[in-house]
């Protein structure tokens, strides 16, 4: 193979898992997975935000910035009960219409569960029941 120069191959240890591998001298990780794991370990907040941003875009058609703006508009509170404690996993849930996909607001864990279980008809029936017994 005269005239063809191959890149120098050398033995390296992966900067994440430490496993030896052979590759180009500029390569620092044995795989893309180890490179991603190292990034997530050294940049946990940026990594979480990136994952949340992708999730919000895919599931609700909004960005993390849109979420943050909604939270500011709601003064950091649940759109239903007004609590400033999101409970659950520590962040407010994105409430959306499952038929249209339209985002309605951000709810605390308990309001999100209640909204998911109760239909409009069930809410009206519950209110009638509570009024019957003198409470709301």
Low-confidence stretches: none
Quick one: overall form?
A: elongated
Q: Quick one: CATH class of the largest domain?
A: Alpha Beta
Backbone structural class: alpha+beta
Compute the gyration radius: what is it? 25 Å
**Which strand-content bin applies to the residues?**
5-15%
Order of helices and strands: EEHHHEEHH
Q: Give the number of DSSP strands.
A: 4
Strand order of the largest sheet: 1-2
Mean pLDDT: 87
Distance between the ends: 87 Å
Number of helices: 5
What is the name of the CATH architecture of the largest domain? 3-Layer(aba) Sandwich
Helix content estimate = 40-55%
CATH topology name of the largest domain: His-Me finger endonuclease fold
Number of domains: 2
Largest beta sheet, briefly? 2 strands, antiparallel
| CATH homologous superfamily grouping of the largest domain | His-Me finger endonucleases
């Amino acid at each position: 193979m005269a005239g063809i120069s191959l890149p120098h191959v050398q033995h390296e240890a992966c900067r994440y898992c430490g496993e030896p591998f052979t590759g180009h001298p500029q390569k620092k990780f044995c795989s893309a997975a180890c490179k991603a794991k190292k990034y997530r370990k050294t940049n946990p907040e940026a990594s979480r935000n990136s994952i949340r941003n992708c999730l919000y875009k895919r599931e609700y058609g909004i960005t993390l910035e849109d979420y943050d703006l909604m939270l500011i508009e709601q003064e950091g509170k649940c759109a239903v009960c007004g609590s400033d404690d999101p409970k659950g996993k520590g962040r407010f849930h994105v409430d959306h219409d499952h038929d249209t996909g339209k985002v309605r607001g951000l709810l605390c864990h308990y309001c999100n569960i209640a909204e998911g279980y109760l239909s409009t008809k069930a809410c009206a029936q519950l209110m009638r029941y509570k009024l019957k017994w003198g409470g709301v």
